Amino acid sequence: MKLLIFLALLKFCFIDGTLVNDGPVFPPPYRPWRTSPPGHLQSLGHQRPPEGPVRPYVDRFLHPVDFWKYHVKDKLPLVYRNAITGSPAIKLWTDDYLLKNYGDLDVLVERKVENRSYSPRRMVLKGFLKQYRKEDIYVVTVLPDAMRPEVQIVPSVLCGTFKTYLQETNLWIGSGGTNSIVHFDADHNIHCLVHGRKDFMMIHHRYYKYLYFKQNVKSKILPEISNSSDPGSGSGYSNLNVRKVDMKKRPMLKRVPWTYATLRAGDCIYIPGGYIHQVRSYNRTISVTTLFSPTSFFNSSGCDDLDIKHLPPMSEAPIHWTYKEGDRTIDLGYKNLMVVRNNLLDPFRENEKRRITFKEFSKVLYKELSDSWQMEADELFRKFIDPEGKGYYTKEDVLNMPIENLKGVARNMEDPAGPLEPAPKIEWEKILEERLAEEEREKQAHMEEMEGRDGADDDEEEIDDEMEDDNDEPMFEDEGDNTGKEQRHKHEEL
Q: What share of the chain is helix, strand, coil (3-state, %, to 5)?
């Protein structure tokens, strides 16, 4: 009896003991005999078996010093199991709860079929929740300040350089059925699942050349916080069709080893900056990510006093880019503010006492820092760098520059991630009522049309019967028989 119970449980389990009744088996089974070459015209992952799972840490966290030493320094991913299970969001964040408590907040929305050239649109969360299960959309936005107290942050990043370079926290909401493109991102990322399940394929960036990457966007950052071993200090993506890989056109894929991870509510995965990955989801998912900038150094200042067992809410973490209700912009994907400050400090490395005039700034630094400025050099200099009107700035001016001024410089370095104007306050209940009424009208019209067709068929049959009664011998026997067959066939189809 016990053996039968064990076999029944095994039927619903992965090798690591996690249930699979919330989606397909992952990693996909390797069956090279089914296609030639292996994995041809199948989803990514069928072309070769994985090397194994991403290294897990169950019910514990690495101290920031160890996190740096064993994972971040060499850019090796990890999984924290049961990491944020104490977050109120795990139990609270149903659609009804989000609708009631955060429905008026603005979010950025993208299409499920990932397209890096598609610009996100801005809408209220209420509108998204009313339609996302039917529409081809998902939320990827800066986690609103009002929601941050309900999600814990992993303590491995809460001291030293990690804490200084905390970039932003993002909110992801989707109805499932998504497959991301194969890509890498500039920043380190701790991706935590609040609801649902996500599967990750992880590929070391040394195999970049075998993955048919379409582009490699390099950002202009200082050498000491970049890493030459990366495929790039920006982000990049491959144009592979992850749902149906043509192995005859992409034969190099068989050389690429990969590891895997399945996340469920409360689990987190660390994805190093520059590390190639692909993500899949199947049903409703909510996740929160914490981004922090890569550096080639780690300062452990403040780490001795850190309580690694204490998980504070995200509202207590010093995140650079945040969003509160009423903000004009949702600042998604901008440069880390410490990086911006270091950009401005770069000219002082050879001479700390020099003064940078507007002329020097406009001729050299302005051109070096960005090629897509949103503001003219004189206005940028006057508004954010030299608001006192001295005509120059010093190293001390940069070190003491307010956060809002640094944000002003960063925002103008590149195009905004989403629309600047707040989302219109649309009466979604009224729109949905009108949509349902329209569907009901269309349904009624269709039923009336079908009833009309049935009535017309009955009339035609009565006419045929009368003609047969009036004519014992039809003039054209063959044609009459064919006409009768055609009429009966038409009626059967209807």
A: 35, 20, 45
| Residue 462 maps to a domain | no
pTM, to two decimals: 0.78
SS3 312: coil
Q: In terms of domains, do 304 and 355 share one?
A: no
Q: Per residue in 437-480, pLDDT tens?
A: 777 787 788 787 777 766 655 555 554 554 445 444 443 334 34
377 contacts 357 by C-beta, under 8 angstroms: no
How many other C-beta atoms can be found within 10 angstroms of the C-beta atom of residue 322? Answer: 18
**Cα distances (Å, whole numbers) of residue 307 to 278, 298, 332:** 33, 19, 30
Instruction: For residues 355 and 300, state if they share a domain.
Output: no
The answer to whether residues 38 and 248 touch, using CB atoms and an 8 Å cutoff, is no
Residue with tokens 């409703």: 284
- CA-CA distance, 366 to 362, in Å (whole number)? 5
Cis preceding linkage at 27, omega within 30: yes
H or E, element range at 14: none
Look up the domain containing 378 and give its range.
337-411
Q: Are residues 289 and 360 in the same domain?
A: no
Helix (H, G, I), strand (E, B) or coil at 44: coil
97: CATH: 2.60.120.650
CB atoms within 10 A of CB 480: 16
CA distance 321 to 145: 10
Distance separating alpha carbons of residues 53 and 78, to the nearest angstrom? 9
pLDDT tens, position by position, 344-364: 998 898 888 899 999 988 887
> Cα separations (Å) of 410 from 183, 341, 414?
24, 10, 7
Taking the CA atoms of the chain, what radius of gyration do you get in angstroms? 30
Report the residue count for the chain: 494
Tell me, yes or no, whether 476 lies in a domain.
no
- The number of folded domains in the chain is 2
